[in-house]
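hiii, so i know i said id send this last week but things got crazy w the move. better late than never?? heres the sequnce for the chain we talked about at the cafe, plus the structure i predicted for it. fair warning i was half asleep when i ran it
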Amino acid sequence: MNSEAIKSASAAFVGPRRVCGGVGASVGVAAGDPVAKPNDPPRFERQGLALAVLFVGAFLAPLDYFIVNLALPSIRVGLNASDAQLQLVVSAYASAYAVLLITGGRLGDLFGRRRMFMTGMAAFVVASALCGFASSGHVLVISRIVQGIAAAVMAPQVLATIRAVVPLHQQTRVMSFYGFVFGLSSIVGQLGGGALITYHPFGLDWRIIFLINIPIGIAAFIGTWKFVPENQPATRAGIDLLGVVLLSAVLLLVIYPMTHGREAGWPAWTYVMFALAVPALGLFIAAERRVERRGGHPLVDLHLFRNPAFGLGLVLAFLFYCNSAFFLTYGIFLQTGLHWSPLVAGMAIMPFAIGFVIGPLSSPAVVRRIGGHVLTLGFSMMTAGFAVTAWSATRTATPDLLFYCGLVCAGIGQGLTLPSIMRIVLQEVTPEKAGLASGMVSSTLQIGAAVGAAAIGGVFFSTLGGSTAPAAFAHAFKGSLMINAALMFVCIGLSLLLVRHQQLALRRAAVQPV
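okay and structure toks below
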């Protein structure tokens, strides 16, 4: 439920909503009660500074996926790297990051989110230094794997801390800024990567894209130590090692062939891995149920999926982030098809970026007016924006005003949608399981990005058919963008179902005795 609906149903309550496996009543501290309860969650003493350093972690993790794309030609020359190593520079990070996100969230629940955020940030800084000083393509790939693991430990703690520490009535605004920062990383990655490679500050070549993380990460580490309170559940339990292994195997069997299959020509081993993911998932579910029956603490609480809003939110997150293929196809269309430079191609994302800035900053006001329908509005704008841009792509030899207007519309829609999905999903779980849930949301987003890049990117290259003519690239880009528009259209219907579920749940909560 959105925060306004909860407040109206809960009257004088401002405490966090405690729900697991369904919709429950709101519980918390009365608005006028000055007495602190022993089990009250910690609060930020200097919230602005605390959120700023947390948002650095939210920014760096996805940034290092996008920023490396425009540096690949320089890495090839500088390290004499092979094509396979260049592919692994991108996909090894993405795979390690996505596979271990749920485990990283669970570690925060068990050992403290502040502690694990600082651990992940320190490891991320070290891994960035290893990447920046890599002496060969092989060393760079290994360093990228370490960097992905560190990001998986660091990133889930941001959402979990917001869910557990920020008061409920502030979460719409804070999550809007989180969504802005999270999405901005992809745009800065495109712009920043092109600018750093073009201007190579301090005489550094591609290495600057990794070394720049070091001073930023150190500042965030110190800021976390000073301003972010530790937060974790009152009860601590051991980690489900078998669950970690089985879940990592399931995600690896899906993500690895997704990120490598197209470049390899979809050999037989990719289909074998996809097939093995099904029994591996069955083994994971059986193992988690066994742990639960024995009174233990499974890695993934399967009861969460009994809440329709949580499950539907994950489906929406997956479909929504399949549109990450837009960044892949847009860059290829401009650089290879239209022969634009990396810097100019990076700057061409600005219309989308402008829309994206407008979306999250206006999200709190939109939520106050239309509540959960913010998702429907966001998906509708993305559908219309991508459709307009796709239709315009083949009308002229170069992008025109209508092309960029469509990108602005799609950017606003994305900016409205991203924070709202995360906020709605996380409000369906208790703060004690916020780390697990945030890891699941983040992992779902990354899996959606991998699937979108492989599937929609595959359609793009198949449509291109080896042609080098600008018109062929425009036609291929149009087809891939129409797939994005179709996926967002499906999300419109699913978002309406989600809003209906929330409204019914609110009515049930309103009639329950206090």
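btw The first helix runs from residue 3 to 10. thought thatd interest u
miss u guys!!
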